[in-house]
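wait is this the right file?? whatever heres the structure
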């Protein structure tokens, strides 16, 4: 970079691999420092902090150029808070306590935590306890023991959220899903073969592909301990509704859905359902919509984990340049779905 390039970065407050010092104040800063801009004639540039300090300048107290960048400090503080939540016995530490340990105000800490993890501290704590419950149900002598081993201080508090947390009752989960009955059927639609599966709560899987047998194996792998059975006449109306939805995604649907996923995944899937037919959004758009703008990769992973094709329209998510990204059901199917929605 030339000094003119560096000065342009300072004016734009863009971060870059250099520092600038101000002779009238005796301090040096990052190019992105939010302090009042100096006059050009008072500015010198330095490649390292050592260069700036050897020239007699002290670090700015605002941008702290002699420390890790703010984004790294924030991420480190959030990582420490996550460990505190994970190591807590019983309920997670109060947010005020976590914020104080991070050296932030409550509101600043809440925003930073959500930006880094994609979840609020409360939701992250719930995820940690849900994981403990799942682990404890596999090893504890009774469901009650598992509840207390996971840090819940009462049965009532746990059972209030048990089914959404586990996707089934604790007793059924403890049995590895045994007893969960899933009806399914395979049909044909404009995009090839479609498998539809449903529990008593609603449709739990819509899978698209070319090979019906492969779709059935996929369903078996997703619900290894459940009882899979062929759909009955009442199930046929759900099958017909899904085929109609795939053939014309613009029509919308009122299917009851049995949506199972982590708190973060469910937030992403809810944002996907808010994208209007005929419109697209980028992964960054979705990350921003759920209040986690830095969680673009996690958003992409949640899209890939969606097993309710078209009903939860992950096909409407595209790259920043508008091109079609990978789609587990085939990029050609994604293109055809988008073309169908865009048709007049």
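ok assuming it is, sequence goes like this
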């Amino acid at each position: 970079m030339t000094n003119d390039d560096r000065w342009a970065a300072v004016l734009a407050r863009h971060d870059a691999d250099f520092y600038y010092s101000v002779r009238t104040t005796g301090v040096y800063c990052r190019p992105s420092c939010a302090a009042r801009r100096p006059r050009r004639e008072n500015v010198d540039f330095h490649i390292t902090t050592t260069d700036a300090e050897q020239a007699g300048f002290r670090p700015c107290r605002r941008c702290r150029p002699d420390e890790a960048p703010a984004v790294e400090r924030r991420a480190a503080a959030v990582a420490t808070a996550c460990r505190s939540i994970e190591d807590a016995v019983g309920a997670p530490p109060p947010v005020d306590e976590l914020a104080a340990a991070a050296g932030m105000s409550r509101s600043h800490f809440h925003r930073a935590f959500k930006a880094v993890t994609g979840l609020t501290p409360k939701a992250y704590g719930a995820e940690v306890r849900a994981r403990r419950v799942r682990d404890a149900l596999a090893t504890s002598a009774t469901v009650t023991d598992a509840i207390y081993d996971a840090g819940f201080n009462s049965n009532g508090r746990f059972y209030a959220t048990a089914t959404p947390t586990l996707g089934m009752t604790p007793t059924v989960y403890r049995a590895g899903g045994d007893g969960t009955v899933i009806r399914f059927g395979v049909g044909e639609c404009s995009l090839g073969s479609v498998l539809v599966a449903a529990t008593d709560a609603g449709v739990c899987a819509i899978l698209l592909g070319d090979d019906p047998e492969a779709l059935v194996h996929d369903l078996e792998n997703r619900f290894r301990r459940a009882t899979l059975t062929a759909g009955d006449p009442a199930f046929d109306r759900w099958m017909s509704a899904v085929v109609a939805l795939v053939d014309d995604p613009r029509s919308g649907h009122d299917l009851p859905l049995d949506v199972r996923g982590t708190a973060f995944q469910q937030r992403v899937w809810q944002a996907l359902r808010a994208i209007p037919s005929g419109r697209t959004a980028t992964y960054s758009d979705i990350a921003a919509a759920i209040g986690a703008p830095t969680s673009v990769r996690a958003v992409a992973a949640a899209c890939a984990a969606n097993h309710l094709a078209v009903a939860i329209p992950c096909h409407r998510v595209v790259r920043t340049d508008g091109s079609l990204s990978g789609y587990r059901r085939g990029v050609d199917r994604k293109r055809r779905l988008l073309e169908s929605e865009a048709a007049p």
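The longest strand covers residues 181-189. so i think its the right one actually
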